[in-house]
Structure formats: structure tokens, C-alpha cells
């Protein structure tokens, strides 16, 4: 005899999105650097910012209120609308 | 679903496995030979009663739809509608309904009937599913005949590593009887996938965890508590630290559902403790999508991430309960959730004065996460009854103990700056001349639980606290 069970999951069907193709060069592009607020993440991002500006990229810095929660929707929207590229850094 | 109509005339429901039905066979035979249309429905043996042509209610559909709770049940039907009914053998009523004044003259006047098969507890849930029309929305999945039910659930990735009870519709319907809330009511939004969590999905996972229906309101309350911004289940799940929701249950309901607050309180062996906590974690895994190695990034994890739930021993506690201390009416049931790691034992078998014992407890609390890290982590201190008695005898209340612990846990900056005592870990140098408390105000939670023998308590260290991490949350349990 077969057993019929109820699905315990959220039954979501995930939407797959095409990744944006990588730019050949960062010169003249705006690169967002997202600090997730982990201790010393800023040290890593400071170094990145310097290297990026040295090669001609514009850098915008962003910061999550806390590393323990997802980035607020408004912050994600701001990054998406003002940057060409984003680097999210985790430091522990 | 429409209710099947009974034939006009007289209708009787019987089963062979009922002494009263067997007793009334001569009456049934007489009615069968009478002029009034007469239909017999037999629930078990299609050949019962002897000498009468009966219809076998094989799927018990007619019995279920017409609310037959007792056999025999005699019904008079006119124009497709029931106009009279009697249950068991009550001679006067049978005579009245049939209009035969000498019916059953050689029988006793009264004999109670037996339980109808359609209300047999072993069948009732299946019949409800079969005949009531489903109100549940979850996708149905068929496990093939040659597939093992338990292996099938492992294979689909729906377990926590231990076997789960297959969530059939009958079991889920039975589970839902534990709450008055509608199956499609949205309880909360569950991380990490941030999806709407219905009572039905909680019930499915509660079945899988092994819960009884009376545990369901506790599971729902615990999920309401962990899925708040204050508790921050997303962070508790995603952190590299070894923490999970620790669920402390309070109120008279903990005794009613048989929770353990005594011997081995934080251990194995009690169904309510273990399955309530497990149902919460399974829901986060299966509905929320929080699985180890994916969003769950714990470096080590801990066994309590399977389940960590217990009741406070309120009856012999020297204090008000944890929930009461957090503002809940003591007559109400409540859960408090705390983002905690595994418990560790505090041994002090010699202290007989409250100051001595509290000093020992403070010394052990100092090491929560790291002795040189102040303020960032809370702690849940579970005082064992033998330790509790020391405070009770000295008439120390909850506040007095907390204040004493806090006074013992003021840390000199010189001892906890980075590099001090040969340890790189610590606070920044500019705190060298400061005095810092180990715990933030309210950062020590006190509960009373454990076996009656053993001069021990338990410390459950917390995770990053406050708005940047997690705050304990208390919710009332509603049925």
C-alpha cells in the first residue's frame, strides 16, 4: 500500500535569475563595498577601497546595521541603483 | 462534501461485535418482515444479522455522515429527512418510532448500546480525512509501495538526522485538534527564506517531530517567539557560534502535558520536552529553509540544536517563575526563548551560605564565551533544587541573587584588555582603567529546574545580545 504524506516544506518554486556578466574593467565603474559590521571588516574594506581607486574605480561605502541580520531592503535597493558592482566582505 | 441520504422508512445501524445488537436480532427480523420500508446497515460483518438482508457500510461513510455514535441506532426517515432517532435498546422508544406497540416484549426494557465503529479512536482520524473533504492545502506526495516511508523522508532531506514520523493527512488532522486556530492562519514569517508560516505547516512538522496534539500550542508559541526581530532567528541560525533556541516553558500547562522539570531536565527521555523543541527546529529547517551547511554556518553546533526545551520547576522554586519575572500572569502558560549554547555544570557541594554559593556561580559565569569578554553575551542560569534550597533558606529572592552575581562580576579593565594575562583576546586598550560588567543589566536569566539530588546548577551561555544579536522573548501560549 502506498503512503500519502503532506509536504512539510514551504513549497516555493525558486526564480532563477541570470547573473549580470562580469565587466572587463572596473575603470570608471562605481563599486559598492558593503561592510557587514563584523569586527575588523573595515580594515579589509579600507585596503580594497584604496586598491580600487588606484585602478580608477569609484567606490561607495555601505554598512549593515548588524552582521547578524540580513541587509535592510532600503540598503539593498540603494546599492542596486547606485552601483555597477558590489563587493560584500565577511571578516571574522 | 454532500451527505448521502438515508432511505425512507426505518433504518437501523448495527454490528455483530455488540451484545446489544445481537440481543435485538429478533426485533430486527420482525421489522424486516413488516410492511414499513426497513433498511439495515451493518458495520462489521456483512452477513449480520442472521436471516436479514443487510447493507454493509464497509467504508463507514453512512455511519460517519449520519453521526452514528452508538449501535444499535434506529432512525425514522421521511422524505429523505431524519425525523426520529434512538440509540441502544430502549423498548419504549423503539415502539414509539416503529409504531409497533408489542415490539420486543420478551426483551429487557433497556440495554445500552455499544460504540459505533465510526467513532473508534483508531479509525476516527482516517474517517475524518476520508469523508469530511480535506481542508488542508499542503501538496500531497505519494511514497511508492516498495519505498520505505522512513527512508523516503530521509531521502528528501526533511529530517534532522533522526527518523521522523510520516506526516499523513490523518496524523496532521489529529495534530490540528490540539489548537483552535485555523489551519491556514498565518502565525509568523519564518527565516531564513522569510515565508509565511501557517498552522498547517507547523502541524505537519510537529507530527514529524513526534508531538502529541496537546503540545502544538507550545510549538506555535515558541515559533512566534523565535520569529521576532528581537530574537533574530535568522542570526541565531546563520551564526558560526554553536547556539540555538533554548525554550523554557512555564505555567500549569507544563504539568498538564507531562513536561519534565526534574531529574535529567536538560536531557533525554521526556516526549514533550524533546518533541516540542524538535518541532520548532524541523519547522525552521523545512519551512524556513534553514539547513546546516547552507544558511546555518555553525563551526561546531551543539546537540541542543536538535531540541532544547524544558519546563521550569515552579512548585518547589524559591522564586517566581522566569515567565512571571518577565511580566506574564502566573496562571498563564508561556514560553521564553533564549539563544543559547549547550549547558555546563557548576559543582559546589560545600557552600551552605548564599554568599558562598553565589560567589561560586559568579566565578563560573565569568567564563561564558571567554573570561575576558564582557557585556556581549547573556547567560541562562538553571539553579538546581539543592542549590535553590540554599537561597530559599536564606530568603534570597531572585533580585537579591541577581544583584549579588552582578556585584561579583565587575571586571577591571587591566585584567581584560587585549594581551592581559597572556591572552590576545579581550577588550580594547582604552578600557584599561575602566570597570566593565560581565553582563548587561538583565543579562542573567534565572530558572529553577533539575533533579532533587545533586548540589549542582547549569549555565547556558548566550549568543551576541541586544539589538545587534538576540534578546530573549516571552510569549503566552494560546490554544
Give an overview in words.
The complex is a heterodimer of chains A (about 90) and B (about 475). By secondary structure, chain A is of the alpha/beta class. Chain A is built from 2 helices and 4 strands, in the order ββαβαβ. Chain A has a domain at about 30-90. Helices cover about 30% and strands about 20% of the residues of chain B. Chain B is built from 17 helices and 21 strands. Chain B has helices spanning about 20-25, 25-30, 60-65, 90-100, 120-130, 150-155, 170-175, 200-210, 215-225, 235-240, 250-255, 270-285, 320-325, 355-365, 385-395, 400-410, 415; strands at about 10-15, 40, 55, 70, 75-80, 80-85, 90, 110, 115, 140-145, 185-190, 195-200, 245-250, 310, 335-345, 375-385, 410, 435, 445-450, 455-465, 475. In chain B, strands 13, 14, 15, 16, 19, 20 and 21 form a 7-stranded mixed sheet that branches. A 5-stranded mixed sheet of chain B has the order 3-2-1-5-6, with helices on one face. The longest helix of chain B is centred in the middle third of the chain and has 16 residues, at about 270-285. At the A-B interface, strand 1 of A face strand 10, helix 8 and helix 10 of B. Strand 1 of chain A pairs antiparallel with strand 10 of chain B.
Structural key phrases:
heterodimer; A: 92 residues; alpha/beta; three-stranded parallel β-sheet; 4 strands; 26% helix; B: 479 residues; alpha+beta; Glutaredoxin; seven-stranded mixed β-sheet; 17 helices; 21% strand
Amino acid at each position: 500500500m502506498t503512503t500519502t504524506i503532506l509536504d512539510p516544506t514551504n513549497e516555493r518554486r525558486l526564480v532563477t535569475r541570470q547573473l549580470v556578466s562580469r565587466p572587463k574593467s572596473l575603470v570608471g565603474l562605481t563599486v559598492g563595498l558593503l561592510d557587514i559590521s563584523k569586527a575588523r571588516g573595515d580594515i579589509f574594506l579600507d585596503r580594497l577601497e584604496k586598491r580600487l581607486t588606484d585602478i580608477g574605480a569609484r567606490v561607495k561605502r555601505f554598512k549593515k546595521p548588524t552582521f547578524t541580520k540580513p541587509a535592510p531592503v532600503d540598503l539593498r535597493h540603494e546599492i542596486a541603483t547606485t552601483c555597477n558592482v558590489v563587493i560584500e566582505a565577511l571578516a571574522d | 462534501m454532500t451527505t448521502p441520504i438515508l432511505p425512507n422508512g426505518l433504518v437501523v445501524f448495527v454490528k455483530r461485535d455488540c451484545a446489544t445488537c445481537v440481543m435485538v436480532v429478533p426485533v430486527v427480523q420482525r421489522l424486516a418482515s413488516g410492511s414499513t420500508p426497513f433498511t439495515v446497515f451493518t458495520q462489521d460483518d456483512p452477513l449480520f444479522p442472521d436471516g436479514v438482508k443487510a447493507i454493509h457500510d464497509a467504508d463507514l461513510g453512512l455511519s460517519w455522515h449520519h453521526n452514528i455514535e452508538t449501535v444499535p441506532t434506529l432512525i425514522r426517515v421521511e422524505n429523505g429527512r431524519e425525523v426520529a432517532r434512538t440509540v441502544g435498546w430502549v423498548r419504549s422508544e423503539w415502539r414509539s418510532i416503529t409504531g409497533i406497540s408489542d415490539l420486543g416484549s420478551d426483551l429487557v426494557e433497556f440495554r445500552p448500546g455499544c460504540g459505533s465503529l465510526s467513532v473508534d479512536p483508531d479509525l476516527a482520524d482516517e474517517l475524518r480525512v476520508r469523508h469530511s473533504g480535506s481542508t488542508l492545502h499542503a501538496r500531497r506526495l505519494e511514497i511508492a509501495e516498495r519505498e520505505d516511508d522512513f527512508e523516503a523522508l530521509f531521502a528528501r532531506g526533511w529530517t534532522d538526522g533522526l527518523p521522523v514520523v510520516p506526516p499523513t493527512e490523518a496524523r496532521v488532522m489529529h495534530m490540528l485538534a490540539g489548537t483552535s486556530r485555523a489551519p491556514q492562519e498565518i502565525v509568523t514569517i519564518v527565516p531564513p527564506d522569510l515565508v509565511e508560516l501557517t498552522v498547517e505547516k507547523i502541524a505537519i512538522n510537529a507530527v514529524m517531530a513526534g508531538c502529541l496534539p496537546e503540545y502544538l500550542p507550545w510549538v506555535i508559541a515558541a515559533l512566534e517567539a523565535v520569529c521576532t526581530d528581537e530574537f533574530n532567528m535568522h542570526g541565531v541560525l546563520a551564526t558560526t557560534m554553536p547556539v540555538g533556541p533554548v525554550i523554557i516553558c512555564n505555567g500549569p500547562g507544563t504539568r498538564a502535558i507531562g513536561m519534565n522539570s526534574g531529574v535529567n531536565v536538560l536531557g533525554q527521555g521526556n516526549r514533550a520536552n524533546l518533541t516540542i523543541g524538535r518541532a520548532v527546529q524541523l519547522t525552521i529547517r523545512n519551512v524556513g529553509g534553514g539547513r546546516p551547511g547552507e544558511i546555518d554556518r555553525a563551526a561546531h553546533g551543539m546537540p541542543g540544536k536538535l531540541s532544547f526545551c524544558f519546563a521550569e520547576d515552579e512548585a518547589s522554586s524559591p522564586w517566581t517563575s522566569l515567565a512571571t519575572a518577565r511580566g506574564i500572569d502566573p496562571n498563564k502558560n508561556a514560553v521564553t526563548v533564549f539563544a543559547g549554547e549547550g549547558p555546563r555544570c557548576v559543582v559546589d557541594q560545600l557552600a551552605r551560605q548564599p554568599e558562598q554559593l553565589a560567589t561560586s556561580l559568579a566565578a563560573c559565569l565569568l567564563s561564558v564565551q571567554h573570561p575576558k569578554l564582557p557585556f556581549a553575551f547573556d547567560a541562562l542560569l538553571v539553579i538546581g533544587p539543592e542549590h535553590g534550597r540554599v537561597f530559599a533558606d536564606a530568603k534570597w529572592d531572585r533580585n537579591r541573587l541577581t544583584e549579588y552575581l552582578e556585584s561579583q562580576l565587575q571586571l577591571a579593565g587591566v585584567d581584560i584588555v587585549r594581551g592581559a594575562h597572556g591572552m590576545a583576546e579581550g577588550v580594547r586598550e582604552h578600557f584599561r582603567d575602566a570597570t566593565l560588567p560581565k553582563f548587561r543589566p538583565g543579562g542573567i536569566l534565572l530558572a529553577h529546574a533539575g533533579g532533587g539530588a545533586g548540589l549542582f546548577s547549569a549555565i547556558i551561555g548566550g549568543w551576541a545580545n541586544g539589538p545587534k544579536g538576540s534578546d530573549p522573548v516571552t510569549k503566552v501560549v494560546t490554544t
